[in-house]
Amino acid sequence: MMLNEEVEMVYCPRCGERNREGSRFCRNCGTLLEEKPLKSRFISGEFRETPVREDLRAKPRETSRDVFEWDTVIMGAVILMILTVILGRLMGLLGVLSAVLIILIYVLSAARRKSAAPLIIIMALLTAAAASALLGI
């Protein structure tokens, strides 16, 4: 083989490893390779998308009533503490009220179940108050 010759490569559909054209199996994971490489199938007009395996499909999020949105509560509490410190020092009581208003807007937009938003707001306020007391903020 000459150095300036371009070698056609076939990519493994499972792991993406480059293999020489004509290889039957992937040299990395051992998956059976297509008879014709993608480039050849595309040029000849035989190209069609292969279906996605079931285990690789995106699974829908759980929408059970038992799942509470602690991520929104914790993020709301952290943002509230940071904004309270910054805006409270700059604007006093008006800054603290502004921080609470911003958290209300955040929770209402971030809550996946809007019916749980009042509880999430209360939990975020309580969590922020407890963390602030613990940290001495």
Polypeptide structure, described:
The chain is mainly alpha-helical and 137 residues long. It has 2 domains: 50 residues, no CATH class; 66 residues. 48% of the residues lie in helices and 4% in strands. The protein is built from 4 helices and 2 strands. A two-stranded antiparallel sheet has the order 1-2. Strand 1 and strand 2 form a beta hairpin. Helix 2 packs antiparallel against helix 3 and helix 3 packs across helix 4. The termini are far apart.
User: How many structural domains are formed by the residues?
Assistant: 2
Radius of gyration: 28 Å
Helicity range of the residues?
Answer: 40-55%
Q: What spatial order of strands do you see in the largest sheet?
A: 1-2
% residues in beta strands: under 5%
Mean pLDDT: 78
Main beta sheet: strand number and arrangement? 2 strands, antiparallel
Shape: elongated
User: Roughly how many Å apart are the termini?
Assistant: 72 Å
Number of helices: 4
Question: What layout of secondary structure does this protein have?
Answer:
Elements: E1 9-11, E2 18-20, H1 38-44, H2 70-91, H3 93-110, H4 117-135
Antiparallel strand pairs: 1-2
Helix pairs in contact: 2-3, 2-4, 3-4
Brief summary of the model shown:
By secondary structure, the protein is mainly alpha-helical. It is built from 4 helices and 2 strands. A hairpin with a 6-residue loop joins strand 1 (9-11) and strand 2 (18-20).
